[in-house]
Write a structure and sequence with these properties.
The protein is α/β, with parallel strands linked by helices. The chain has one domain: 3-Layer(aba) Sandwich (Glutaredoxin), CATH 3.40.30.10. It has a 5-stranded mixed β-sheet. A two-stranded antiparallel ribbon has the order 1-2.
């Protein structure tokens, strides 16, 4: 079961592109969009992360941050960010800690891959409380970007 609106976001340790640990609790202080995605360099994931990139100025104007999270290694995520000019953090959850804590761990993705994130978005307020969730059962489905932005706007 995934994390619900009104709950405190679980804490988990992720790894950034410099291979440094980042705790979800360290993201507190401003509204945060956590976008879990299955795998870098795949069609829907690329479209999703590029859409968040294209909308980043809007999130910045709301003093919010966007963070992408996947099970890919920091090296893969670094190259993905470079190739697609993604300027927001992409964090590696290669140990599946955050995916499990948020309830979005997919043990058998499309019958092919073990241990990746189901596509999902969580919006957290400044204190780390979940104010919006979206979870897809279809890997090719992108998030409702307008609804994500609206959830962040309510925090302004």
């Amino acid at each position: 079961m995934s994390v619900m609106v009104g709950q405190q976001a679980p804490d988990a340790v992720l790894v950034n592109g410099e291979r440094k640990a980042v705790r979800i609790s360290e993201l507190r202080g401003k509204p945060t969009v956590l976008a879990f995605f299955p795998a870098a360099f795949t069609g829907t994931c690329t479209r999703e992360m590029c859409r968040f990139r294209d909308d980043l100025s809007r999130f910045n104007s709301l003093r919010a941050q966007v963070v992408g999270i996947s099970a890919d290694t920091p090296f893969v995520l670094g190259e993905f960010a470079k190739q697609h000019q993604l300027t927001f953090p992409l964090l590696s959850d290669f140990n599946h800690q955050a995916m499990r804590a948020f309830g979005v761990y997919d043990e058998n993705f499309l019958g092919l891959l073990d241990g990746i994130a189901r596509r999902s978005v969580f919006v957290l307020d400044r204190d780390g409380k979940v104010v919006y969730t979206w979870l897809s059962d279809a890997p090719g489905q992108e998030p409702p970007y307008d609804a994500v932005q609206a959830a962040v706007e309510k925090l302004s």
